[in-house]
Amino acid sequence: MSSTMPPLKILIVDDNPELLDVFAHGLPLLGDFTVFTAEDGSSGLEACYQHRPDCVVVDIRMPGLNGQQLVKTLRGDPATAQTPIIVLTALPHDQAEFSSFAAGTDVFVMKPLVPRELVEAIKMALFVDDEERAQRLRLLVEEGDE
User: What CATH number is associated with residue 60?
Assistant: First the structure.
């Protein structure tokens, strides 16, 4: 990124404080990122409105408002509907991936992963557009009909 562009604002929502710490300190070392964190879906939603991140990274399994509920909420609000969203989870791959993409996720990654892998996922998520999201949803529906 050129030095004239502001840092990308990344919000990471996960109930694991150690993971939040690793990413909050690791991402800025790997790129021009400002990282915000939240330990549950409700505070993640508040942080999203407060900081207006360029990308949101969400764990699925959290107390209260879970990751998929957060994704659906963000996608349902015109103010946040275009925000790139990455789901980060340790849940079984097939089930979690399907329901995450159905909720509106742009990129799905499995735990454990290192900050460098998350940087690559962020780069991918930043280039997903409405057309790609719609196409993915059509494919999910077609696969479900088989």
Answer: 3.40.50.2300
**pLDDT, tens only, 9-46:** 999 999 999 999 999 999 999 999 999 999 999 999 99
CB 76 within 8 A of CB 88: no
In a domain, 82, yes or no: yes
Does some domain include residue 47? yes
Token pair, residue 5, equals 């562009």
Cβ contacts of residue 135 below 8 Å, gap of 6+? Answer: none
Is the residue at 120 inside a domain?
yes
Q: Which long-range contacts (CB under 8 A, 24 or more apart) does 123-129 make?
A: 125/55, 125/84, 125/85, 125/86, 126/8, 126/54, 126/55, 126/84, 128/84
Q: Both tokens of residue 145?
A: 């009909």
Specify whether the CB–CB gap between 39 and 17 falls below 8 A: yes
CB 39 within 8 Å of CB 14: yes
89 domain residue, yes or no: yes
Length of the chain in terms of residues written? 146
Average pLDDT over residues 58-71: 93
d(CA 30, CA 24): 11
